[in-house]
Specification:
The structure is a single chain. This protein has 122 residues and is of the alpha/beta class. The protein has one domain. The chain is built from 6 helices and 4 strands; from the N terminus they run βαβααβαβαα. The protein has a 4-stranded parallel sheet, with helices on both faces. The protein is globular, with a radius of gyration of 13 Å. The chain starts with 7 loop residues before the first strand and ends with a helix.
Length: 122
């Protein structure tokens, strides 16, 4: 599991909107498919030492934010960590942020393919 990309770490948004939950879905799928290891952005933002250390030791960092607030990115930047790749679903994939609704499986598949292909270029 994650043999080749052991130090590729993916972080996602943890909000409740459709795009936020889409980012979590993508990060879990990237982890389960062995493309990148998902880690806890809340722990990084909360300054939990082992999780900050993991982020700082990562060879490559991928961040998938749901909207222009870019909370996951800001959690890393508060620790002086910059990602190698950063996606914002509403901006990069033109998906509208909607509260109290689920994401579209079709959108998830399309975005997963684009994100996983970009990660493979690292």
């Amino acid at each position: 599991m994650h043999k080749e990309n052991k130090l590729h770490v993916v972080y996602s948004c943890s909000g409740s909107s459709n795009v936020a939950q889409l980012t979590n879905h993508l990060a879990v799928k990237l982890d389960r498919d062995g493309i990148a290891e998902m880690s806890c952005i809340t722990g990084v933002g909360g300054n939990v030492k082992p999780l900050v250390h993991k982020a700082k030791q990562a060879e490559k960092i991928i961040v998938i934010d749901g909207c222009k607030l870019q909370c996951a990115l800001q959690c890393l930047q508060n620790q002086n960590i910059e990602p190698d790749i950063h996606f914002t679903v509403t901006e990069d994939f033109q998906i509208k942020k909607i509260f109290h609704e689920d994401f579209s499986p079709e959108d998830a598949d399309k975005i997963y393919n684009a994100v996983s292909e970009k990660i493979k270029t690292l």
